[in-house]
Specification:
The protein is an alpha+beta fold. 38% of the residues lie in helices and 18% in strands. It has 10 helices and 12 strands. The strands form 5 sheets. A 3-stranded antiparallel beta sheet has the order 2-1-10. A hairpin with a 6-residue loop joins strand 1 and strand 2. Helix 3 crosses helix 4 and helix 7 runs antiparallel to helix 9.
Length: 357
């Protein structure tokens, strides 16, 4: 084995500077743990997750999901089905201890929390955006808790626990502007960036809140493996197919309208271009005064024939079903969930829907 001295392990001054420049482009900026030590320049720790969507891509996902939910009937149906299966007729919580139950019911029915009425909407938002973000506020007088409902698009980044990278530790919000009412005038005020601790059990032995839930906000994320912090919408993977199917149906509808239209092919035998223009001017004025079922009187020099366009429109049922198959596969629902009777009987349909339950 070759004898390697300390001098061989040292980076030259030029190598060191180049490594620092390249470090700026590495995931997370290579700034976690002791990565800023000179011996670690240019490297990222294996325990830091780097497969989250970039923030701008995450924000784009929120916009696309919201747009599809409002404009695409299939996307709307998917989110509504998820909410219907999760919430059903409602969820009711009751504790056996009367004192504990009093606290729970106060939190559950509090006007701003209002879980009885807003639970279904919160489930829809979680399904649509893939994330739920609820800053918590504690009443200093009676200790009651009020949850805010924050759009996850205000999140800049989610920071994992340095000792357990599968656990979210901090949520960093974006700086921006907000509207406030001052003297009956709406005024834009700056909102600084905030770093909020995710509410979880305090495991620090020396902490006064040891064993209790402690933090600033609740954060939940779905449709992700453990090593990814940010959540993904239920319709993210099928968004392109939803758009393709929507455009496909729209184009078919336009084609059907074109097929049902017709135009007049008129032959004016022996007429010169000026005579044709003169005839067209007089004919337009004359036909503007006539109703449907009108008569058209002409001599042997004029021929009129109705022509429908031949668009070579084939049967697109197989194409439509292929597109929908991608959507069904991405959601886990069967075709019957979208109102398609399919080619199966009731028994097969029940087996196909069993995975949903």
């Amino acid at each position: 084995m070759a004898n390697i001295t300390k001098d061989h392990l040292k980076l030259s001054w030029i190598q060191n500077q180049v490594s620092k420049l390249f470090r700026l482009n590495l995931p997370y900026g290579a700034s976690t743990g002791n990565i800023d030590d000179d011996k670690n320049i240019g490297w990222t720790p294996l325990t830091v997750p780097t497969r989250n969507l970039p923030t701008y891509h995450q924000d784009r996902m929120f916009l696309v999901a919201s747009y599809l939910y409002r404009t695409n009937p299939i996307a709307y149906r998917i989110i509504e089905i998820v909410s219907a299966f999760v919430v059903g007729e409602g969820i009711f919580i009751k504790a056996s201890d009367p004192a504990v139950d009093t606290v729970i019911q106060k939190f559950w029915n509090e006007r701003r929390n209002n879980w009885r009425s807003l639970l279904a909407e919160r489930v829809k938002s979680l399904s649509l955006y893939g994330e739920a973000f609820y800053p918590a506020y504690v009443n200093s007088v009676d200790g009651s808790v009020i949850l805010g409902n924050a759009f996850p698009g205000i999140i800049e980044k989610v920071v994992p626990n340095i000792r357990n990278n599968f656990e979210v530790d901090l949520v960093v919000t974006k700086a921006g502007q907000a509207l406030e009412l001052h003297d009956n005038i709406l005024v834009e005020v700056p909102v600084p960036q905030q770093v909020l601790r995710v509410i979880k059990q305090d495991t620090l032995i020396d902490s006064p809140s040891f064993g209790l839930s402690s933090g600033d906000a609740f954060y939940f994320a779905i449709n992700k493996p453990l090593d990814i912090m940010r959540g993904i919408s239920d319709i993210y993977t099928i968004a392109d197919w939803l758009d393709i199917f929507d455009r496909f149906l729209f184009n078919r509808a336009e084609r059907q309208l074109a097929m049902s239209s017709y135009l007049w092919d008129i032959t004016l035998t022996g007429m010169s271009p000026p005579e044709i223009d003169d005839w067209m001017t007089r004919q337009i004025l004359q036909e503007a005064k006539q109703r449907s079922g009108r008569m058209f009187v002409h001599n042997e020099k004029i021929t009129r024939q109705a022509i429908s366009p031949d668009l070579k429109a084939d049967d697109a049922a197989s194409d439509a079903r292929s597109f929908m198959s991608m959507i069904w596969s991405g959601t886990g629902f069967s075709s019957q969930a979208f109102g398609d009777s399919g080619q199966t009987g009731r028994q097969n349909a029940a087996d196909m829907n069993e995975c949903v339950y």
